[in-house]
Amino acid sequence: MIYQLTEGATVEQLEAAGLGTFYAIRNGALFPADPNGVPWTATYIQAHADPVADLHEDMAAEQKARATYEHLLNLAEDPGAKDALRFLREREVVHFQRFGEALRIVQEYQQAKKVY
Questions:
Q1: Quick one: 35 and 62 in the same domain?
Q2: Are residues 64 and 103 in the same domain?
Q3: Whether residues 35 and 82 fall in one domain
Q4: pTM of the prediction?
Q5: Structural domain of residue 70, as residue ranges?
Q6: Burial 81-99 (b: 16+ CB within 10 A, else e)
Q7: pLDDT tens digits, residue range 27-82?
């Protein structure tokens, strides 16, 4: 999406959009980072070796991503970008639902009487 929106942009247009430093370092290469330019790191992944805690963490991450897509939709003007953002937002909703189903299954298993 970023490539599509910046394809063919001049250096002057990138600078005017606040992307001059990004261009200087990476040209048009993709680089996983948050909107503030903070690079992605594995420290963002939360795991506790407790399936209930981990699934709740996963569900929270999906809701945060959904909210971010909604905020991006409010900022976007390009119809193609808005369509892509709507798709991604709905995908987060489905992920949240699937994690919720997995949580229910795990909790039912944990509560079931085990007979050996």
A1: no
A2: yes
A3: no
A4: 0.73
A5: 46-116
A6: beebbeebbeebeebbeeb
A7: 777 778 887 878 888 887 878 889 999 999 999 999 999 999 999 999 999 999 99
Binding residues for Mn(2+): 62, 95
* Binding-site sequence positions: 62, 95
Take residue 53 and report the two structure tokens written for it. Answer: 């805690």
Model confidence pLDDT, tens digit, residues 2-21: 777 788 888 898 889 888 88
Q: Say if residue 68 is in the same domain as residue 115.
A: yes
Cβ neighbours of residue 3 closer than 8 Å, sequence gap 6 or more: 28, 30
- Two tokens at 17? 């959009």
Q: How far apart are CA 94 and CA 101, in angstroms?
A: 11
Domain count for the chain, please give it: 2
